[in-house]
Amino acid sequence: MEPITRNLIQIGTLGDFGVGKTNLSSVFIDNKFITEHLSTIGINCLMKDIKVNIGDQIREIKVKIWDTAGQDRFRSLSIQSIKSCLGVVLVYSIIDSKTLINIDNWIKELNEKKNDEQIFMILIGNKCDENRAITKNDIEELKKKYNIPYFEISCLNGKNINELENYLCHLSLRFLTKRIKRKTKIESEKNPLIKSDKIKKCFIY
Ligand SMILES: Nc1nc2c(ncn2[C@@H]2O[C@H](COP(=O)(O)OP(=O)(O)OP(=O)(O)O)[C@@H](O)[C@H]2O)c(=O)[nH]1
Ligand SMILES: [Mg+2]
Q1: So where are the chain's domains?
Q2: pLDDT per residue as tens digits for the range 104-113
Q3: What DSSP element (H or E) covers 28?
């Protein structure tokens, strides 16, 4: 079997106050649900090693999740802290329609502040164990506008958490591969002595 290659995957969370960003990070990393709303102050970072099966290969990735604060006073810090991540999980709560409306603002702000690197985005409707206050149409509009994948999850009862984790890991690896290939191509155009080994090593999809 191939030696295990460890890639660092950095993922940020964004979304309004109380939608469940900290719980998503906590359920994802420690399998733990937190009942109280201990509003995040500034930013937290959590890490986990995950083995991902890709055909007959196993890749070990280190996932670093940046759990940001949804409060307005931390808005620019939240965006600033995750703008270099590989991907961003945009979280809203299906029981609070204004948190979905605000996703548009989070995306716009992120797009304004990020650098030239592409960032993948996934839209998450959390708290699907509760009664929804949002129609499927509202979600379709946003999905169409930004063409982003969408999951409805519950951090409370674990619905779709494994599916999301699996999707996130595969998408991250595909995206990381693309990023490294792009960077290596630019480097090797500047300096032809740079071998394509770097590309071969990271090329997994
Ligand atoms: N019913 C239900 N409640 C949830 C779920 N996820 C989170 N909550 C609750 O929602 C509240 C807020 O969750 P947090 O994870 O702290 O929210 P947050 O987005 O990190 O909030 P800020 O840090 O203030 O931005 C807590 O009381 C959680 O227990 C869920 O899937 N279902
Ligand atoms: Mg939080």
Answers
A1: 4-180
A2: 999 999 999 9
A3: helix 21-30
